[in-house]
Amino acid sequence: MKKFLNVLHLEASPGWGGQEMRILKESEAMKKLGHKIIIGVEKNGGLIERAKNSGFLTYELRFKKAFWFISFFKLLYIMKKNKIDILNTHSSSDAWLGGIVAKFLNIPIIRTRHLSTAIKKGLNSKLLYGYLADFVVTTSQDAADIIIKQANKDPKKCKSIPTGVDFEKIKVDPIESEKFKKDFDINETDFLVGTACFMRSWKGIDDFLKAAKILENENENNIKFIIIGGGHKDSYVKMAKDLNLKNVIFTDHLENPYPAINALDVFTLLSTAHEGVSQA
């Protein structure tokens, strides 16, 4: 086997959340080890600019079924041109399309499963996690157990590797947290309750806002509720307005969220489903 590998990551998700962050971090680590990393992302996806800024050869692709015919040949070109040794897929659409192309070229496939949601039973799981995945990586053991059972996957070829934490990056200077409070007009006497996530339906933001309303009705006026992160924000901003909440702050996406998290008095992890390992 070659000492240094040419690895192609495919990501059909257009967002920028924990899944995409993990792909970038893993790519950066593999690059430091001497491997060549190429990244293919859904057109206009959140990973594109960050991958380019990190020095990776990056391709924009279309993973929706309507574009599969064109994308099949584009992937064929990418894999041959870059002499890909391993394909790493991350979402359903890229796993199907990329997996088919890789099988055609006899390229080994690693499928990373980031979520803990149930997978479709029957032939679907056996194809996606069996035939189209030589090895499966999950972010939690529960997800690995589901795949081993439903896809009849050899346990030796399906392992949980939880998302790691860079302890250097999460070190926070207290001055940075004070600046965060100043930027968002937070007083020293305010008690901060918050969460950090890419806002989606299962992140529990609706529960968070309902709890904020209950406490506001009890005249707990010194409590401020902080939602750190981007995502599908508009519906929750509307919900906060409909509830007439006065003490809720939406920070939007913060490239460095750690000073904000460090400023909290209480951190809440609210996800109701789907998490492999929450990076928050």
Features:
single chain; alpha/beta; Rossmann fold; seven-stranded parallel beta sheet; four-stranded parallel beta sheet; 19% strand
So how many helices? 10
Biggest β-sheet description: 7 strands, parallel
* CATH overall fold name of the largest domain: Rossmann fold
Instruction: Determine the structural class based on helices, strands and strand pairing.
Output: alpha/beta
Give your account of this protein's structure.
With 280 residues, the protein is of the alpha/beta class. It has two domains: 6-160, Glycogen Phosphorylase B (Rossmann fold, 3-Layer(aba) Sandwich); 174-267, Rossmann fold. It is built from ten helices and eleven strands. It has a seven-stranded parallel beta sheet, with helices on both faces. A four-stranded parallel beta sheet has the order 10-9-8-11. The chain is elongated, with a radius of gyration of 21 Å.
Give a nutshell description of this structure.
The protein has 280 residues and is of the alpha/beta class. It is 38% helix and 19% strand.
